[in-house]
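Re: that chain you flagged

S.,

Sorry for the slow reply, it's been a week of failed gels. I finally had a moment to sit down with the sequence you sent. For the record, here it is as I used it:
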Amino acid sequence: MDGNGKLLLAIFVSIFVVLMIAFAKSFHKDSSVTPKYDERQMAVRGRGYMFAFYIIILVMALMPVVITDEMKTFLGDLVYFIPLCVGLPVHVMYCVWNNAYVELNLNVKAWIRVMLVIGLFNLLLGGYRLVEGTLVEDGVLQANVINLYLGILVMVIIIELLIKNAIDRKEAEEDEESEA
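Prediction finished late last night. Pasting the structure tokens below so you have them in one place:
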């Protein structure tokens, strides 16, 4: 990449970061970019990070034993993403299930709508590549598979959030009935 290309890339990344910060502000009830969690949520998130960390270490330790040379060739550079692709859902799903994923100052409905669009967009991109037959080229899995992974992950997170919300609502109704 020449000097002009690097400059354009730097400008694009800078604009992207500014837009992401402005976008993040739009999801909060206050005008803050910083998420707010209570002490219990912070403790749960800490345990979630710990579980994800140990899962990542376990996956990294197992990879040399489990992954064959053929698998390394097929996965290409994506082999380095495997621990992340396992650890990330562990953290997120643990936090969702223990009511520590959603920030106190988050506009949840707006966030879910945007995440749904992002998830569907990634599913469509990955699905298109799958149908087109370009997820694997010359026997090597292409980076486009990450779109498929992210789309599935976002959908799983949204479904888990909705299930957890329904369970919490049902438990709250049962508690109200038992108090009456």
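What I noticed first: The CA atoms of residues 126 and 144 lie 6 Å apart.

Talk soon,
D.
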